[in-house]
Target: Oxysterol-binding protein
Amino acid sequence: SDHMENIYGYLMKYTNLVTGWQYRFFVLNNEAGLLEYFVNEQSRHLKPRGTLQLAGAVISPSDEDSHTFTVNAASGEQYKLRATDAKERQHWVSRLQICTQHHTEAIGKNNPPLKSRSFSLASQGSANSPGVQRRPSQNAVSFFNVGHHRLSTGKRVPIMQPDHLVDVREMMSQAEGQQRDLIRSIECLPVSGHLTSLDQDLLMLKATSMATMNCLNDCFHILQLQHASQQKGSLPAGTTISWLEPKISLANHFKNGAAQNFPAELNKPASVREEQLGAEPCQLTREPEEINPDEELEDIFHDKEDDLGAVEEQRSVILHLLSQLKLGMDLTRVVLPTFILEKRSLLEMYADFMSHPDLFIAITNGSSPEERMIRFVEYYLTSFHEGRKGAIAKKPYNPIIGETFHCSWRMPKSDVAADASSNLSAHSLSEQVTLSEDVEGQTELDYYTVKFVAEQVSHHPPVSGFYAECVERKMCVNAHVWTKSKFLGMSIGVTMIGEGLLSLLEHGEEYTFSLPCAYARSILTVPWVELGGKVNINCAKTGYSASINFHTKPFYGGKLHRVTGEVKQNMTNTVVCRVQGEWNSLLEFTYSNGETKYVDLTKLSVTRKRVRPLEKQGPFESRRLWQHVTESLRDGDIDKATEHKRALEEQQRNEERLRAETETPWCTKYFLKEGDGWVYHKPLWKTVSAVQTQQTDTN
Model:
């Protein structure tokens, strides 16, 4: 009874991007099942500024920090609240959850069983006459009344028999049929008027009903496996319990209103659907273009993705999209709405990971294998901060197959950390001049140039190849990445499948590395990005390796964006460096000699990349290809950006269909397939080998 007493106090409430957080006086009315708030305690006797029905609501502690939590009402309305500390948050969350459970169960008790009742909307609605009028007092709980059976407490649940599974399957089939009728009835409503198909309550209803049926199907699948294990004594070797693949075609759901902005590609012929990664590549038929760095100019655009307005305005579209998705579902073929896009291609995002070229070049200046590995780890961990644009989680454009991106950086030699013992020999200098193709007699440049090229080498699955080199320092990096996205409920996970290879040709060393997973969290409120997973860096020649863990925030407590790692010598298993901190703010490196180094990423200088003007770019270069989409997004014209984006995607589908009909394989421009990976057609290690061979023959 103590837990059902009314509680009250001040909490901070998030209003919008402009107003931000504001203190408000909240009252939990347990008897009525209401959460009310007032401007302050003195105005408590007045009408509440806002009220939420807690029956059917979901109370969720936020994973952003230990103070924030959300109250998601069944009506679709949401309060984002913040307590003064973790203890106060737990107090409010516990009381709200108790009150919510009490009133939700009360509704269930008052409703008849499922078999004797059908969905009120589904039984009345039709294509021509919806026949549904909402009373002012109706909310989503009363609008969607479905009873449920409760197991009697205190009794042992018997082991489910096969006939019981048949009964459950029959009941679920009935529920699935009713849910389909509900969806059809909602989609038959007009797009304007008193009650529309885009009503936020109805969109929330579609989303939650679809998610409920998906979860029930998954639970039924687990019950079947459990029953099979009881029959045989244990699960068969190698059996895994995982989320099922979706049974409903997405294309059938995207029909009305704003949902047309993101059609799925699932209705294509099977021959067009896949460009298999393992297909035999053809030789390069499109002549690779040699980009002259002197034609490139310093980039003048610096788009920060901190604008949340469009996301809040289009919340109904996000809800409609979520109603079509399923836990664990691959999002590769789901075309996302335009307003959540960044103003750059994924290929350009990979280039932005190179925004600290001074740290990249300094790797090869290390005087020992140990120092070079540590410098690579330092560079690796500092690359992700600038790769993200702002705190808001938005998605870069999906590159079109054949799309390319070129840029370069110029780094004054005086700004690159050197080593006193790394004096280059005259022979080494002569090789650099030869490789740089400097004309005879030209004075040596006072800056290093790092050149970058990326290409989308496959569309399904989406694979990108990128390559960067510094000819003067005889170092290059080659990587291929397959981005695989999955829907995880209130977040989206992106797995970066692939491998990178850093070559330090002066030392004959190669470093292999992988990339962490990325997660877009809180996609219905203020979406934000975190990295997660373990990555490894290895150098086979020297025997040094690094293990780095990107930690996702735990459900309760803990810090955001935490990273830890260590560098060790494999032969002796000796740890020579440890690192901890946050990948987007402050990193602490502790070395074996006891010294400590701090790197503040927010103060680390960023070198702007150099890009050719649009008029000099080819038609398939990222910025020229997406220029109309980018300009429309900068102008805030979402509809126009969507039109341009759809035209590009339709052109890609038509070309893909034509290649399938004529059985013409796709030919890449800059990257060649080697084994399971993709390699730049003219990597520096081949150029250096050719020059050294030529010099040997000459001598």
About this structure: The radius of gyration is 29 Å. The chain has 16 helices and 26 strands. Residues 7-107 form a domain with the PH-domain like fold (CATH 2.30.29.30). Residues 200-232 form the longest helix (33 residues).
